[in-house]
Amino acid sequence: MFPGIRCSLWVVLCLIALCHVDAHPHLRLPEHDPIPAIKGLISRTLGPQYNSQVVVTAKDERGYDVSSFDEHNGRVRVSGSSATAIGFALHKYLKDVVHTQADWDNHALVVPAVLPLPPSAVTIAKNTKFTYYLNVVTTSYSFWTWDWPQWAKHIDWMALQGITLPLAFTGQEKIWLETFKKYNVSTAGMQHFFAGAAFQAWGRMGNVRDSWGPFGPIPLDFIEDQYRLQLRILDRMKEFGMLPALPAFAGHVPAELVTLYPHANVRQSSQWANFPEQFTCVHMLDPTDPLYLDIGRTFIQVQTQLYGGYTSSVYQTDTYNELLPHTSDPAYLRASSKAVIDSMLAADPNAVWIMQGWLFYFMKDFWTNDKIEAYLGGVANDRLIMLDLWTESFPVWSRTSNYFGKPWIYCLLHTFGGNLGLHGNLPKLATNPITSLAASDGHMIGLGLTMEGIFQNYVVYDLALEMAWRSTPMPLDKWVQAYVHQRYHVENEHATKAWAFLKTSVYRDEGLVDSVATTRPRWQLAVNETDVDGNLLLPKRVSSDAVSAAWTELVLAGADSVGKVDAFQHDLVDVTRQVLNNVMVEYYTELVQLYLNPKTSSSVVCSKADQILDLLHEMDTILATSTAFLLGRWIRDAKARGTPATAGYFEYQARNQLTRWGVGTLNDYANKQWAGLVGEYYAGRWRVWLKAVCDAREAGIPTDDAKIDGQINDFEVAWQTQTNEFPTDPVGDSVEIATKLHAKYGTKQHRVLDLGSHPSHYHFASKIFDDVMRESLMPMPDDSEDNHVDIPNMIVRYGATGAGKTHTMMGSERDGSGDDNQLGHHDDDDDNVPHVDGIIPHALTDIFRLINSARADEEDASVAEGLGFQWSVVVTYLEVYNEQIRDLLNPSSRPLALREDPVKGVVHVAGLHHVTVETSSQVLQLLRS
């Protein structure tokens, strides 16, 4: 496609999106004064002294938000159609001109004493009405321990991102408590209806009830404190002109209501996530029962009263989140949704319902299109907004004809449980919101973030938030380079290279892979456990080569001034964490292979087990250097939500969510690779399992897996109620410790063959050659306890005829004779023409040097005793041409075929000639003959 045609296509797509009838409900952002709101924002984020350098002006725009910044009379001017639009303009100026960035980790903004003036005016318009923020469960995975200072910073961050429609669910238990008092439900009955403090999100959706554990129900003072906190949250959101989505009634009721209203039509919901019935099967009031409308109306009336007469008229609630309706009758499904909106409208004639569309994906076998259409048909199109919760991966809107006419918001889900792990799809995110908007017939009315937990992969969300203001695809290479500059405040060649590796690997359509370190130890650690033939499936490493290359560049960058930047230190720790996870996969794989080999001694197996435990300790050590990866802060903040008398309750809640998630049915769902958690909890489980494995091998008996699992379970349960403290401040220097770890693990991950100064004899572009050597060559194992070592390798050459491919690999022609230890630049005695060796001669010389050195060592009986090393080098040489495989060491043979070895599970060339050699010269003679 020609560039001009491509540009025209995007213009056409944008015009298509604009020509269709606007389908969203008639919601307007509340009246507010943006100028004092932004001045307050500047004072809190930059400092009050900067208000004199920034002019804040409001634009009168009736359509979608517009933002701009420019120079005005020697000062920076930021303008917009709302406070959040001006906030976005301010942040855009800070990112593009000052090269600093606000993120949700609250890394410090780096701003000079005198703000630089914008070189030119910049104006940006939103392409939809709303920027939505938060998943219902984010409130539990990330926010439940927060106090007002943390919330205040986060709402400021929302304003800088242009967020207009945030979820505001904090403290709603106070509303439920006061509502059901009117129906004579006791306080004790409500406490058993409410989920635990760390699990309120699932209680609000009717998935779970009550507080499990030894500390009793949720404390009432926590409910009151959260309500007071919500009032402050709403005040700040209103100040910025945001439209907070408030809670509403979805039909879930306390069990006590059944006794109080025996004639009401109440049934228990389906069991959720295999929880014991006492903690799930929440009671559901039938939508056709008259009491349904009454309770729903009362709830909103009480809520409005407790909020000082305020309501946004936007309400978020979910009746069937991961729960099946008791019938698939279309009339009943239609009545279910109609009851929800009718109860809202009974209290607020302007009510609009926001619903998460997750149920239609999660239970898609039940929710066929006819049932979805029936369910949504109970609500008028202008009274319902659908959150297409996982648009980037599973867009429900496209298979339901825009939710059968309902307005919907494009949502980025991306991550579950707040787990850590480098992953994302930046290329898709740079285009998909725009193509989705163009195809939506005007029904897509916004873009939102619905991740289950924050504090991970910020680059993905930063791009998504900018896409809300784009009408054409984002030029990704340029954007990522700018992101690195903004994040670290300076341009650094190594940091830029690191992110280039990350952009083309983990952030290019790679899904999140569970960490082996945080998974309960067992023999099969893979999603499907075994393949169809019962063979062991080993876990996957996350783009190990590219991540390791990025790690190398970040370690090099750390030696520069950027190493002092807090955001850089965070990312260095995060990438180091990912690399060590990849090493963990490798160590686990090696342990399994060693154990399955009956010839492997118990000492070798146990030595590998010790390596795994050492690795977990080192992972914990690097995580401890950054505030973002500290278990101690999570527990400290949780305990601060209570009193000395209830601190045990909140610590249990904090520990339980991260680990057993209830009574063990969702074990490790919300795992976090945090210092303290890795070093004590995850390493503790691995210690139990590895000891049992070593003991079994030493005794010559199989492992008793059921017994081991029981021991691990006992360890987990005991950890829930422990009260030992963990550091709340960083320990150690991130750059220093990462550098030491890189010296130990970097070469292992890179597979680099260290050729010392030899490359200086090559007349190549040095960067290209360095990359070839770094990424293509593997080291000989210097201390292997295996009897047999295979070193697979491949080097791909590409270039025009005469470009130097053969010279790169083989070097200059010579007779192949000479000392195997002589390498590099040679002078021919006859013609005085210099000869240069290529990559293959270099590698061969190094291989035989190592072999000869090992043989010399074996002459010392104290070294060689019991090892019995035998070294052999076997050469094969083949050509693939015109889809045929030819054996170059046996040119008279017919074309060869590929075969799969059913035992080893590898592909090989059948009938390929093998020649055993003793010197590199023999190899070169074979190749050149």
Automatic annotation (TrEMBL):
A GO molecular function held by the record: microtubule binding
Residues bound to ATP: G799, A800, T801, G802, A803, G804, K805, T806
Biased composition (Basic and acidic residues): 812-827
Listed SUPFAM superfamilies: P-loop containing nucleoside triphosphate hydrolases
Disordered: annotated span: 804-831
Signal peptide boundaries: 1-23
Alphabetized Pfam families for the sequence: Kinesin, NAGLU, NAGLU_C, NAGLU_N
The Kinesin motor domain, residue ranges: 730-929
Record bears the keyword Phosphoprotein: no
Keywords from the named record: ATP-binding, Hydrolase, Motor protein, Nucleotide-binding, Signal
Keyword Metal-binding tagged: no
Gene Ontology biological-process entries: microtubule-based movement
Annotated family: Belongs to the TRAFAC class myosin-kinesin ATPase superfamily. Kinesin family.
Name of protein: Kinesin motor domain-containing protein
Taxonomy of the source species: Eukaryota, Sar, Stramenopiles, Oomycota, Saprolegniomycetes
